[in-house]
Amino acid sequence: MLKTAINSFHRDQDARMVEYAGWDMPLFYASGATEEHRIVRRSAGLFDVSHMGRFRIKGSGSADFLNHLISSDVKSLPIGLSGYGLLLNPQGGIIDDVFLYHIAAENYLLVVNASNLEKDWQWLEKHKDGYDIILTDESPESSLFALQGPRVIPVLETLTGLSLQNNWERFGVREFILENIPFLAGRTGYTGEDGVEIFVANEQALALWKIILKNFSPHCEISPCGLACRDSLRFEPGFPLYGHELNETILPPQALLKWACHMEGDFIGKEAVTALLEKGVEKKLITLSLVDKGVPREGYDVLSSEGEVIGQVVSGLYAPTVDKYCANAFVPLAYSKAGTEIQVSL
Amino acid sequence: MMEIRYAKTHEWAGKEGDLYVCGLSEYAQDKIGDVVFVELPETGAEVEQNAPFGVIESVKAANDLYSPLNGEVAEVNTALEDEPELVNSSPLEDGWICKIRSDDESFAALMSEDEYQVYLKGQDE
Question: Has residue B44 got a pLDDT over 90?
Fold first, then answer.
């Protein structure tokens, strides 16, 4: 099993470890996933997400190449900013959802899901002919942390002496040094909170992780957090997770991701997306909350109020902030309107 | 103090009056993490030792609960409907799951505390 550079920390903390996409990852630490969820909502949490893939794309053809492969408007992404996008197949199906950082001129960093790393790499390799680019998989050399919560930016400002709250735009990328460790941070994340995603060399990853926990703790509550609460945190604000809300048979408009498609651009899959939009979307992602108690797990049938099976749950869990049992499911358009009464077969 | 005995599937049982109280072990609640929902067996249901009789849902997974004893469910802990987290905070007391009217034979077939501790060592290796 693959191990991140700070695996020893997770083990030393007696985190509950699980295998995820071939990696030995923490599911939760001693205080439990629900408390970790709440600490991120009220203060700050630190996640090891080094299992995610990081590809470097450099060269004069990089913007054209990425613009062709990613659904969003890559050419309009200024240096120093990052943005969300999709890799689509020619049928419009979602190969992966990705985050692109425009680091410098002709220099991009693409963050991909751990479970899709190999598939994405092959896809990029397959389409690079004709573009003047150098493609590198930097995943093995660096670590990726997510530092998330409402206290993150104010405390980072205190620790660095920099003016950040109003001078660092959302998705902006900056370089920092904390206790002599340099790292790159993007003001983004996948929890619905303000925060940063941090790129650091493996050699300094464990030291930086400990420095963050140590230096933040006099200023605010902070806890290492595992994958379980990362899932519940992304679920509450409606962020999709690959393999659940997204897969190669789902097109962006069905998953409510038409906004991530630059329809004036020229990306792989655009024709299929255009055709679907012209024809009309026949099924759509919805979020439902249960009236009764019970966890609507993935794969459970969703039924109309008359009892006809109309879809299946793709993500379902207990949402701590709203204290409700909720699920995402794809259902025919007729059942997708807010307020529609439907059932889940638990 | 009542004698508590354990099933291989990590449920416990202990005699209280003419009934056996049952729950989930300290070890198991720690392993599965935050409990968010417990599907309790029905009062009056006939249960069979080692057969599923409920479901316990933690943040990331649903786990079957297996009856530690043969018998009939006499009472269920309805407090778990509103506070499933009692299974985490007090697995051997307030977080009990149900009370079963049972024979002593199926109780005797369970592991003693000492045997269970030895069994757990094997689980983590």
Answer: yes
What average pLDDT does the segment A75-96 reach? 97
Structure-block tokens of residue B79: 């407090």
A positions 182-201 inside 8 Å of B (CB): none
- Which of A25, A27, A34 should we substitute to test contact with B (largest number of B Cβ atoms within 10 Å)? A34
**Interchain contact, A318 vs B37, CB within 8 Å:** yes
User: For residue A342, with 0-12 CB atoms within 10 Å meaning exposed, 13-18 middle and 19 or more buried, which class applies?
Assistant: middle
Burial of B107 (0-12, 13-18, 19+ CB in 10 A): buried
Cβ neighbours of B34 in A, within 8 Å: 28, 32-35
Query: In whole angstroms, what is the distance from residue A19 CA to residue A256 CA?
Result: 30
pLDDT in tens, A21-34: 999 999 999 999 99
Q: Which residues of B touch A344 (CB under 8 A)?
A: none
DSSP codes, B38-87: EEPPPTT-EE-TTSEEEEEEESS-EEEEE-SSSEEEEEE-THHHH-TTHH
> Backbone phi, then psi, for A263, in 5-degree steps?
-70, -10
pLDDT for B123: 81
User: Distance between the two ends of chain B, CA-based, in angstroms?
Assistant: 31
Residues B76 and B96: their CA atoms lie apart, in Å, by 8
Contact residues, chain B to chain A, C-beta under 8 Å: 31, 33-34, 36-37, 39, 57, 59-60, 62, 81, 85, 88
Token pair belonging to B91 = 């697995």
Of B84, B76, B36, B87, whose CA–CA distance to B60 is shortest? B36
Q: Rounded to the nearest 10 degrees, how much is the dihedral formed by the CA atoms of A114, A120, A125, A128? A: -120
The residues with which B40 forms a beta bridge, in sequence order, are none
pLDDT band at A138 (very low <50, low <70, confident <90, very high): very high
| Band of residue B122 on the pLDDT scale cut at 50, 70, 90 | confident
Q: 3-class DSSP state for residue A264? A: coil
Helix (H, G, I), strand (E, B) or coil at B119: helix
In the prediction, which pLDDT does B125 show?
61
Answer whether A126 touches B (CB < 8 Å): no
A32–B33: do the CB atoms touch at under 8 Å?
yes
Residues composing chain B: 125
Residue of B37, B57, B59 lying closest to A33 (CB–CB):
B59
- The ipTM is 0.82
Query: Which residues on chain B are in Cβ contact (under 8 Å) with A35?
Result: 34
Residues A263 and A270: beta-carbon distance below 8 Å:
yes
- pLDDT for res A346: 82
Q: Residue B88: closest CA among chain A residues belongs to which residue?
A: A32
